[in-house]
Amino acid sequence: AGITHYFHKEIIAYLLEPLEIGQPLQFLSPLEPLFFILKIDFVGGLLLTLPIAFILIIQFLQPAKPQTWRVSGTIIVSASLLALAGASYAYYIVVPVVLTFMQSLILPGTVAAFTASGYVNFVLGTALLLVFIFQIPIVTVLGSALGLFDPRQYALHRRTVFLGILIASAV
């Protein structure tokens, strides 16, 4: 969090880029600017420490598997790259699409006045959600390696899973 706090002005400017409303964000309480910065610091620190968290999780799980199982750096690098891909997808695709859609819902005679807290909660929440969703392949690989999941069962239930994904995406 200390590293992200050092660069918090640049990070805030970067986070505000998708917002194209022409008016500044509003703070509605005296402490809100402080909490705004602290949220950004916390989430930035969380994202920066993900590779270390992946290493610790893998080291915790390693005794559950026989000595022949050795996790190389590829899983840690892959998990980090997937986290970066999830955050990028949220920032460059999801946030602008949602903001554009929400701007189209504004009724005549009204104005969109976003609060700083609401906006940062939306952007950071979306990014964190997609970072965790993008980790599903890593969980699947680790689960298979530890014997928790059987790849043959994946193959048997592939059609059911695809149908479930199709139904979930339609809803």
Structure keywords:
mainly alpha; 171 residues
Description:
The chain has 171 residues and is mostly helical. The chain contains nine helices and no strands. The longest helix is centred in the middle third of the chain and has 32 residues, at 73-104.
Quickly describe the structure.
The protein has 171 residues and is mainly α. It contains nine helices and no strands.
Distance between the termini: 37 Å
Helix content: over 70%
Q: SSE order in H/E notation?
A: HHHHHHHHH
**Unreliable runs:** none
Question: Layout of helices and strands, plus pairs?
Answer:
Blueprint: H1 2-6, H2 8-16, H3 32-48, H4 50-61, H5 73-104, H6 116-133, H7 136-145, H8 151-156, H9 158-170
Helix pairs in contact: 3-6, 4-5, 5-6
